[in-house]
Give the backbone structure.
Amino acid sequence: MNYTNKVIERFKSPKHMGELKEANGKGKVGNPVCGDVMEVAIKVENNIIVDAKVKTFGCVAAISTSDVVCELAIGKTIGDAEQITKADVVSKLEDLPPEKIHCSLLGLDALKKAISAYKEKH
Amino acid sequence: MIYLDNGATTQVATEVVKEMDEVMLNDYGNPSSLHSLGRKAKELIEEVREKIAKEINATADEIIFTSGGSEANNLALNVLESGDHLITTKIEHHSIEVTLKELEKKGIEVSQLNVDAEGVIDLEELKKSFKQNTKLVSVIHGNNEIGTLQDLIKIGEVCSEKKVMLHSDCVQSFKKEKIDVVKANLSMLSLSAHKIHGPKGVGALYVNKNIKIKPLIFGGAQENKKRAGTENVPGIIGLGKAVELDLELDKVKELRDYFIKKVESEMEEVKLNGSRSNRLCNNANFSFKYVEGESLLMSLDLEGIAVSTGSACSSRSLKPSHVLMALGMGAEQAHGSIRFTFSKFNTKEEVDKTVDVLKKIVERLRKISPLRKK
């Protein structure tokens, strides 16, 4: 698979992988049958996502894009975070192999689910 | 680089390269030419034909050189015509598996036998699958992904009783297992050079002399009019040299067994896929729970270790390998499978290093996996 150096670097040293203990919104997407499962957790304070973490079962693209999704979400209002696009994720990684673009959508779906979960409770 | 992907291809042996070099520089004649340079080239390839025939207890006129295993498999299936019935398995190599769809378009009926959890077909199911119009049975001998071996002798007995031709894809098993086409009642057999330290782009199909085979490539009268095109002389010479060389199978098996033992004793929640004893001596296929195959493969690659995976994420489809699914394993386990295939060029130190690296990577990936419940 032809991944850019940025993808590989992110895959090797992701910055937002793991548990988020003080999370107040969580969203899980995918299933093991397709080979991708992602769970995004966010911590929202005063309408702003102050922290986000993800746990990912999946390929190199799934791990690196979901990590980028968290990075893009942190510091944004939940309204702005909902506006993050697939293109934003892909450009952060320079590029993705065409058959891997769908992975970047999954991470965004998980983030949106986490935001909805937060909204429901608050 | 620690190369543990010998099921994909092998390092070409120095002896093979030297011989091919020699032929390209000196014996560059066209085997169809009547002059001495042509006759010399013809002589050289006929020697290889003889050698290969001897290896599988066939005769030289039963060997057709091809561009490799895939062409050999395609050529074998080309004996089928509209209205014929083919029995094959659910764990064939893509060069059979994908061709089946083309055959069906041409009006050929196809039955695919199930396999058990270890990847072995059921002889009773085979016996029950024959129909009036069954013309061919095609069974992979040593599976390319999980390494499981089928009992060709027993399958051959069934086919001979039913008077139906038997073809076997022996690309992975050739030279690793003793194969006797007479004993196994084999009508056709596919083999390839690059799995045994030979060059890529050359292989052969054995076709019993009583069988009429239709060419896939038309043109000149080469290969007894069964395969047109100027022979790949250096490739064929390389194949011949590779057949002569010792694969050091005892050493390979020892390394493979050492690897399996080490992984199973030092790692948790791992599963050896396929059969424990009934498998190709160079193959180990493991599933690592909670971890996806491609990310594991790429992590190993970053550490200089080459392996392969049957995971869907390494290809365009979302479905994991048809072979792993045929074993009845869950998709999650299939997505987490990695194939390690050894050769005589590997060492015990390489195995030690691989297991050390593997432990660290699997632990790292499991830590970030949402599938592992604490």
Notes: Chain A touches chain B at residues 1, 3, 8, 11-12, 14, 17-18, 28, 32-39, 55-63, 99 (CB under 8 Å).
